[in-house]
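Example 3.2
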Amino acid sequence: MALLSAGQPQFDPHELTAERVRHLYRRRHAGWWINAVSGAFVALVCWSTFGRWVLLWYALFLLAHGVQWLMGRLRSQDEERVVMPIDSVRPHRLAALMAGGAWGVAGAMLPWLSANQIPIVLVLVVVATVVSLPRMAAMPDIFLCFVAAALLPTALGAFWLPFEQAQMVWLVVGLVSAVLWLSSRSVEADLMEVVLKRLSLERMAWEDKLTGLSNRRRFDAVLAEEWRRSSRMGVPLSLLLLDVDHFKLFNDSYGHTAGDACLTLVGGVLGTTVKRAGDFAARYGGEEFVVLLFHTSRADAQALAERLRHAVHALGVDHGMSPHGIVTVSVGGATIVPHGDALPQTLIDQADEALYKAKEAGRNQVVWSDVLM
């Protein structure tokens, strides 16, 4: 199902993934307790049939749902993260399979239960899948994993029941599956409509209207976030500062309209070149742009800086007041592995110093900070 129709703003799919996962764990504490109490009731109902063996099931049940709760807790520690690679949802999918499978084992126990116990356990399994809908519908594939892991073993276990009871189980499982599938599509559509509206409002606050890139305000927030993440993981964080060479002379010669068009073209180069999940480009102010590269070594960041410089050069925008004859950019870069008392401003200062050296050396080049941290 298409999430974006014509006329709607286009959002980075990694950004939408982060929003979906955030919603997935919105009420993880309440969800864990509801499942724990429901599972305890199943154990109580089945005690007379399985005895202490049901305690083993319940322990594994709590473990499975505990893993899902832990995934939510880890996600909440990274709450400010605005993008997530799409393939990073695999652990969340596995956690949903484990949680649903714990209910599926309860459903698979139906053939050993009495006629009075079967409806109770079946209802609890069904209710567990239904109450997960509002939270998990944000990610249909994860919801499908949970529901399939819960209901498929229940349906298969019914083959060992008397035919009349098996029919009842299959009818309930079939109807619930159909209703959940239809409802999940509707809930997802409603949810994504709300999410997209909220993202649109947020974008208005942090988007540079001229270039379509993020603005300085958004950059400051992302830098603080990525600095913490890099420090926690012990990985390098690289930053590029780009300055359009002799831009004031360009404005004076060609006019502000042409100047705006020039900045838009340079912003477009950044938007199409800086596209790896987790990388970030913004207009820093005036004719300056900034690129933040998470978990990127100095060599890789320098290579990207050169690609950006060459891409702007390849635009071939006339600039009669420049010694190069066309619009070019100077780039200053720095790479840091955040640690100790170092502050994010340190990374900016180092890149800014490198940019100054690039300008002093004749512009249209990349210079990297020699400071190692």
